[in-house]
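Thread: Modeling a multi-component assembly for a lab meeting

Hi all, long-time lurker, first post. My supervisor asked me to bring a structural picture of a complex we are working on to next week's group meeting, and I have zero experience with this. I have the sequence lines for every component (224 residues in total). Could someone generate the structure of the whole assembly? Inputs are pasted exactly as I received them:
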Amino acid sequence: NAGVTQTPKFQVLKTGQSMTLQCAQDMNHNSMYWYRQDPGMGLRLIYYSASEGTTDKGEVPNGYNVSRLNKREFSLRLESAAPSQTSVYFCASTDRTYEQYFGPGTRLTVT
Amino acid sequence: AQSVTQPDIHITVSEGASLELRCNYSYGATPYLFWYVQSPGQGLQLLLKYFSGDTLVQGIKGFEAEFKRSQSSFNLRKPSVHWSDAAEYFCAVGATGYSTLTFGKGTMLLVSP
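Re: Modeling a multi-component assembly
Sure thing. I ran the full set together rather than chain by chain. Output:
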């Protein structure tokens, strides 16, 4: 099993450009999450999907959209990137045990 | 509102010395508690978890943690630290009925020779 996979690993965008971060899990988990990690801020939840067909805002949703494409895939879209969105983005998934499994992350720089 | 506090931003420990990382939480419900470790450039890996039962839980890499309900704490310990333990450590809390975990801001562990 690959667990949680994320693409791309690295990305550089110019201000105003758009992009989609992809996340997939092969553990048949119901719930999936997107976090951003910034120095000194820990992990902050952007959006989550408790089950297929539902999405909810987390702590820092502004400037982002998500799509739960199917049970396996949960994508994060930046419609108009801003330098404040420079961060490392992590996707995670969980089953009923609440233990979250994390992907390797996407390092995004917006210039 | 739920919250998790890791009071120490950085901790430096000599190799071979013991380690304790602190975690305090504020939660309305009976909590589920986790410790994760993140090596540089990597994702988060689960060290251990507490759901119920014995309040002293054992994890991977020789780590353990003790749940103390009266102190709302879940401190992580290791008797003898190795240089490879240098990483950032995150405490997280969840509860039945909540779809999300609340993470602390992390403690960076540095290991000196």
